Amino acid sequence: MKRLLVFFGTFVLCSLFAGCGSDTQEGLVSDTIQMIGLAANEVANIKTRVEEAVKRHEDGKKFDLADAIDATTKLKEAGDQAQKIGRSIAKVRAQITDEERKINVQKHKAKLNAAFAELLKQKEELRAALAKAESLGPNAKSEVKLLREKIVEAESPFEALSRSAN
Length: 166
Known about the structure:
Blueprint lengths: L1 H15 L6 H36 L7 H28 L4 H37 L3 H28 L1
Helix pairs in contact: 1-2, 1-4, 1-5, 2-3, 2-4, 3-5
């Protein structure tokens, strides 16, 4: 999960430095903010599925994280979208002057920080939900382990983008 945080930190900085001289550059920053929001929503969706599974278990039903595992697909799709945005940013980056970069940082910093803060909040809430689910017993622990593996897999596009941005 820390890899996703590293990715977004790197990606946000890259996005800030993408510039704001034309509609294309503005669009890339806007797309980045939307993509971070989408990732936060997908993490929240996974968390909700985990919480629902815990509630069903508390109601006497079998603990099953299949819905949460299925929800990781959407997070992976968001990662694929992030890679496309990253490639677009790389194409535009060389055309941006230092002055445009400074202007862009000031113009978009608040929105990017807010989107990133929401993502971090959702990641922390997911971590807490997974910890609660793990405490339900050995079956739950193995289910959570499988879900964590799927989350790592879903985060792999973000991680790859983070490595290429450095």
